[in-house]
Design goal:
The protein has one domain. Helix content is 51%, strand content 0%. The chain contains six helices and no strands. The longest helix has 22 residues.
């Protein structure tokens, strides 16, 4: 993993991108896991609990990247820290804000990708 990689949070609601949580995760790993700008644009719809089953958009995007690389989803690891993997519960019950969700999902994806890269060496 590039130590100078721009973290996903730097794209969240920040000009010129103003990306949603899901889009920010994809953009943060665009170089490591080739993702088109068109795909990032399509992930706009997975914000604010609108991902399937009400899953957090950051988790949904992270799982997309991981599964594209043959890796397991992060729902359980994420929920162990944030209290849930559902957007509504994360925000209202556990009071875990969106920026923290993005940072957590970013960290979990980075860890899984780094672990896979070390195992293949």
């Amino acid at each position: 993993m590039d130590p100078n990689r721009k973290k996903s949070i730097s794209y969240f609601r920040t000009p010129p991108y103003n990306y949603t949580c899901a889009q920010a995760i994809l953009k943060g790993f665009q170089k490591e896991c080739p993702v088109s700008d068109e795909l990032i644009d399509r992930f706009f719809e997975y914000r604010g609990g609108k991902a399937p089953e009400g899953v957090c958009g950051a988790i949904y995007a992270a799982n997309y990247l991981l599964q594209a690389n043959g890796l397991q989803p992060i729902n359980k690891d994420f929920a162990a820290i944030a209290g849930s993997d559902k957007c509504f519960e994360i925000k209202t019950i556990h009071r875990f804000p969106c920026p923290d969700c993005i940072n957590l999902a970013d960290r979990l994806v980075e860890e899984k990708l780094e672990k896979t890269n070390k195992e293949t060496l």
